[in-house]
Write a structure and sequence with these properties.
The protein is α/β, with parallel strands linked by helices and 260 residues long. It contains 9 helices and 9 strands. It is globular and about 55 Å long.
């Protein structure tokens, strides 16, 4: 299995420590990271660059909870570019302060995934719901690909809250720091030399909300995938001694059990 990996999914509670484990998969198996956060930012950026400034609510029917047809959207905004239209849909929900529905998340994922030929990706932040999990398996089947296994990064709520409230990010390049484990020198990004910041959603209240969302929505998606025969590999999100090599070993030891 490990000699010819198509795709891997990495999941876990928000703040569990997924990124260092994703980095191991990328380095060891020549994979790329496909993150829903990056996908949303890409399509939002594409739409913003297009420069359409009119009210987006005219494109969405709240009663039916659906957008008008892409053809009508195209006529109104003056382009049939798929990426711009997807960006418009994503921006509508972002501007409303709402989570995008599964239909929009699925469409954005499919568009980005197709550009990678549905191969050699580490899926990060997707699927998060049962509907998304079902969509993913159908999408892979239709395109002759597969999901080889799932990495579940485990960590306690207490550690996650403590870790996340101390997380800091560079507003320019996105590099992540931690006030205890990986502190920025003089509060600045080592690459960009700008002050790092705390993300607006890295407060204890919002972290608690995300933890509840994982239990309510993502656990059922994970159970569904397990029932469909996708192996789940559990790795620790907390190590007594956090080093790059210790993270690598902790992941590979568990993955190698799949070939036994």
């Amino acid at each position: 299995m490990l000699e010819n990996i198509s795709n891997v999914m990495v999941t876990g509670k928000s703040g569990a420590g997924k990124q260092p484990r994703i980095d191991v998969l990328i380095d060891e198996f020549n994979l790329e990271q496909l993150s829903t956060g990056d996908i949303f930012r890409h399509y939002l950026g594409t739409f913003n660059k297009y420069g359409y400034k009119e009210d987006l609510s005219v494109f969405y029917n709240k009663e039916s909870q659906q957008f008008i047809s892409d053809e009508k959207i195209s006529e109104k905004i003056g382009t049939d570019d798929e990426d711009i239209i997807l960006g418009l849909k994503a921006k509508y929900f972002v501007d409303q302060g709402l989570f995008g529905p599964d239909s929009i998340t699925n469409a954005l994922l499919d568009s980005a995934f197709s550009k990678k030929q549905y191969e050699k990706q580490v899926l990060d932040g997707y699927p998060r719901t049962l509907n998304q999990a079902e969509f993913l398996l159908n999408l892979l089947k239709e395109n002759g690909s597969k999901l080889d296994f799932i990495i579940l990064v485990e960590n306690t709520d207490e550690r996650i809250i403590k870790r996340t409230v101390q997380r800091r990010i560079c507003p320019k390049c996105g590099k992540v720091y931690h006030l205890t484990y990986k502190p920025p020198v003089d509060g600045k990004c080592e690459k960009c030399d700008v002050d790092v910041i705390q993300r607006s959603d890295d407060t204890e209240e919002k972290i608690q909300s995300r933890l509840k969302e994982f239990t309510k929505k993502t656990i059922p998606a994970l159970e569904y995938l397990k029932k469909q025969g996708i192996p789940v590999v559990t790795v620790p999100g907390h190590l007594e001694k956090f080093t790059t090599e210790n993270v690598r070993k902790s992941v590979l030891i568990e993955i190698e059990k799949l070939d036994k």
